[in-house]
Design a protein that fits this description.
single chain, mainly beta, Immunoglobulin-like, 2 domains, four-stranded antiparallel β-sheet, 19 strands, 0% helix
Length: 267
């Protein structure tokens, strides 16, 4: 897989190839339906967006409760479906409220990085590879996204999909567009009281959980620059050793259920 910085697509308007009875090409950036962008209908004419019998969906289930952890990498996907179609395409982009690409996209086996300049700002996309969406009735494009190391607020994924009709032309294809919004995890604040579920033993360089409060949590530890330096699953009877960390100030995020507790520690 190829790793790419910041945040995807459309069947190309030119340079098309005839494969398996339908037109195929690499995807094209800047057609996701995001603010300032058109969709694939700019080139693939004949029907309005989302007017066909098929669908497109963005699967963000890995981002629990629609809240992203800073620096965390998630497995995401876009599925395009339409009965009787044997070639699909897609493009996706991840933008903040100001229209800037946010996070790090990691391409899957059938898609790749692309870029387009919208209103003077370069955006990063993932789009399908040549013949990458060749499958019957539906195709799921898998990829990863790493959340930014600092809080950019609400982030929206915009995606467009193409279900090609196989007439060897850009007319008659069905175009679908959708979006999905996620938020940063909302912490309950820096907790330094004895009631905290996070127990910090400086002398032994250990973090542990208050067993009477919670069964387990996902540890995410960040340095003062917001970079993720350690993440690990924790149990009530388990301690997290921090001997390998350099001296300094760190923010410990403990994600448990629908809440996150944050504790500042100094090593």
């Amino acid at each position: 897989m190829r790793k790419i910085n910041f945040p995807l697509w459309v069947i190309a308007c030119s340079g098309l190839f005839f494969i398996y009875g339908v037109l195929s090409s690499d995807g094209k950036a800047g057609k996701t339906g995001a603010p300032g962008e058109n969709t694939c209908v700019q080139c693939h004419t004949g029907s309005a967006v989302n007017s066909g019998s098929g669908s497109i969906s963005i699967n963000t289930a890995a981002i629990l409760n629609g809240e992203y952890e800073l620096g965390q990498t998630y497995d995401l996907s876009v599925a395009v479906e339409q009965t009787g179609v044997s070639l699909f395409g897609f493009s996706i982009v991840a933008l903040d409220a100001n229209g800037n690409s946010i996070g790090t996209l990691i391409a899957g086996a059938d898609n790749h990085l692309d870029a387009a300049t919208i209103a003077g700002v370069t955006r990063q996309y993932l789009t399908h590879d040549f013949n990458g969406g060749a499958s019957v009735d539906s195709h799921t494009f898998n990829f990863q996204w790493t959340a930014p190391s600092e809080d950019f607020g609400s982030i929206t994924f915009y995606a467009t999909g193409n279900a090609a009709d196989g007439n060897e032309a850009s007319s008659g294809d069905k175009i679908y567009s959708t979006n999905a919004q996620i938020q940063p995890v909302q912490p309950i604040g820096i907790t330094e009281s004895k009631e905290s579920i996070l127990l910090w033993n400086l002398s032994n360089m250990e973090l542990s959980l208050n067993g009477n409060t919670i069964e387990n949590c996902q540890w995410n530890i960040f340095d003062v620059q917001g970079s993720l330096v350690l993440n690990q699953k924790g149990q009530t009877n388990q301690t997290i050793k921090l001997n390998d960390l350099q001296k300094g100030i760190y923010m410990v995020h403990c994600v448990h259920g629908n809440r996150t507790e944050i504790k500042k520690i100094t090593i």
